[in-house]
């Protein structure tokens, strides 16, 4: 499919042009036509206007920066991108492309049933995918959404398609079948392979299995993207060791998902990979706390790999619940750096049970105490602790619960800036849009990258910020001629007010939209105008484009 549009031309006037190669002096007029940047001229000049074959829509940038559309390299909007509220939240941050299929669990290949069940509280349901593989999934985005969607092949979904809920190592025949599914997904346009090694069934896959799946990714020029094993933070070294082994055995380029730890750990572990000859990048959102399904940090993987109905039966059984309380819960120390006081560090973000609406925004410890008080007027009411409350809410929601996860030592803005100014950093929100009290990263990350790193911490200039939020991802994941403002490039573009841009979302008010980005173009079509959706749907499923090199363009490469 060619990247074009039937919409008429657009002339953006009086714009500052900024991309990762630098800022052009002065103001410019930029003509968008046929899905591309057709011409760039000094403001008020005749060249851009002279190329017009038809009257154009004129958008006055009034000195705002025209930047390449932002790429969210780690998104859980795969199914949510059809929701206008989600579209608005992303476009108000300047995001024009999201990369889904993350953490090893997704809709394709297969019929989407496993990913929908297990990641119900992360990805939700996909409104139009019912099978057909990566090709069908990508085709479902063509002309149906204002944003572009690229996808990874999720290794856990591949394992489930071949091995079901087995926790064993694959047989040679099973491994061959899994490799074929990965290769097929890449041939259909996937940008790489993802793993989620703290989720099921990925937790049961060893490095040898993953290296075997990564070989067709290396051959195709894709990227191995991993939620590494072990919980990050102080536990990062073991996960990085495994990544290095997989990359060495397969020759694949790697990308570490949501790499959150201290600056010394992040920079030190990336240096170790580089010393081992591993081509590595990473994403990290500009917040400290995490977010995931509640079942992952508090239940054994051997239980959660079973069908949801069986898990629910175990959690509802008093004898099984007593066994978990006696044998399992004393052994958990909390995911990542939650620590033994985990009930006070998990805030309920999404609960798919209306009777628990009141608990959104409370920690498990607070919700358990509130639940006991709410039942105090009932003669039969008994005190409830955080374990019982967590299991009760999982049963009532059929496991569809996600939580914001605090850490014991939250990083300062200066530390976040030190991490995100690393030259291998790529913007990724890990955004989850489900829930009445979600993590603010979904609606705030990309605006906060700009306000924090450029405006407050002065860790990056605007060109380097453009590389972080756009250019590096476009190159690394083979997203076609995106990531630069030059003639001939795909006209995915954002007008940014450098003074006003900021995130509205916070932990206290996570649903607020970003400010300072009011006009966005996808394939040259206005999809956000004056801060509102236009209703246009020029987005498409992006198929991986091969690139000979993954290197930043020089200033000589500017249009």
UniProtKB/TrEMBL annotation:
Chain ranges of the Amidohydrolase domain: 58-505
Signal sequence range: none
Protein name: Amidohydrolase family protein
Lineage: Bacteria, Bacillati, Actinomycetota, Actinomycetes, Micrococcales
């Amino acid at each position: 499919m060619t990247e074009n549009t039937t919409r008429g031309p657009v002339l953006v006037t009086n714009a500052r042009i900024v991309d990762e190669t630098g800022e052009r002096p002065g103001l410019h007029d930029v003509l968008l036509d046929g899905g591309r940047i057709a011409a760039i001229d000094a403001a008020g000049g005749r060249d851009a206007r002279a190329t017009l074959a038809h009257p154009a829509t004129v958008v006055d940038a009034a000195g705002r920066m025209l930047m390449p559309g932002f790429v969210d390299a780690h998104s859980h909007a795969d199914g949510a991108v059809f929701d206008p509220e989600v579209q608005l939240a992303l476009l108000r941050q300047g995001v024009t492309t999201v990369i889904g299929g993350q953490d090893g669990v997704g809709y394709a290949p297969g019929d989407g049933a496993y990913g929908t069940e297990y990641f119900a509280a992360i990805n939700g349901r996909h409104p139009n995918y019912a099978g057909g593989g990566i090709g069908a999934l990508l085709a479902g985005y063509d002309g149906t959404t204002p944003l572009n969607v690229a996808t990874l092949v999720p290794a856990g979904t591949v394992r489930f398609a071949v091995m079901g809920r087995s926790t064993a190592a694959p047989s040679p025949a099973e491994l061959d079948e899994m490799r074929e599914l990965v290769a097929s997904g890449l041939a259909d346009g996937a940008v790489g392979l993802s793993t989620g090694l703290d989720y099921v069934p990925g937790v049961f896959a060893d490095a040898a299995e993953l290296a075997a799946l990564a070989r067709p990714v290396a051959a195709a020029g894709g990227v191995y993207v991993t939620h590494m094993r072990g919980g990050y933070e102080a536990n990062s070294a073991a996960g990085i060791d495994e990544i290095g082994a997989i990359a060495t055995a397969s020759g694949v380029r790697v990308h570490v998902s949501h790499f959150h730890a201290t600056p010394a750990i992040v920079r030190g572990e990336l240096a170790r990979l580089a010393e081992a000859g591993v081509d590595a990048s990473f994403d990290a959102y500009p917040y400290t706390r995490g977010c995931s399904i509640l079942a992952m940090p508090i239940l054994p993987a051997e239980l959660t790999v079973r069908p949801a109905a069986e898990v629910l039966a175990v959690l509802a059984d008093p004898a099984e619940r007593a066994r978990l309380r006696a044998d399992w819960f004393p052994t958990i120390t909390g995911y990542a750096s939650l620590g033994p006081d985990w009930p006070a560090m998990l805030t309920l973000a999404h609960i798919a049970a209306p009777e628990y609406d009141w608990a959104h925004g409370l920690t498990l410890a607070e919700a358990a105490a509130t639940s006991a008080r709410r039942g105090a007027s009932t003669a039969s009411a008994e005190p409830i602790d955080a374990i019982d409350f967590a299991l009760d809410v999982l049963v009532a929601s059929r496991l569809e619960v996600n939580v914001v996860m605090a850490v014991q030592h939250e990083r300062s803005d200066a530390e976040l800036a030190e991490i995100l100014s690393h030259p291998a950093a790529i913007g990724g929100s890990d955004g989850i849009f489900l829930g009445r009290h979600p993590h603010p990263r979904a609606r705030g990350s990309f605006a906060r990258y700009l306000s924090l790193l450029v405006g407050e911490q002065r860790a990056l200039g605007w060109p380097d910020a453009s590389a972080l939020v756009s250019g590096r991802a476009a190159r690394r994941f083979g997203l076609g001629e995106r990531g630069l403002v030059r003639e001939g490039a795909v006209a995915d573009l954002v007008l940014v007010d450098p003074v006003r841009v900021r995130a509205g979302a916070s932990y206290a008010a996570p649903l607020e939209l970003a400010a300072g980005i009011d006009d966005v173009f996808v394939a040259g079509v206005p999809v956000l105008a004056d801060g509102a959706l236009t209703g246009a749907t020029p987005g498409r499923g992006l198929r991986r484009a091969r690139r000979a090199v993954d290197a930043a363009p020089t200033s000589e490469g500017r249009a």
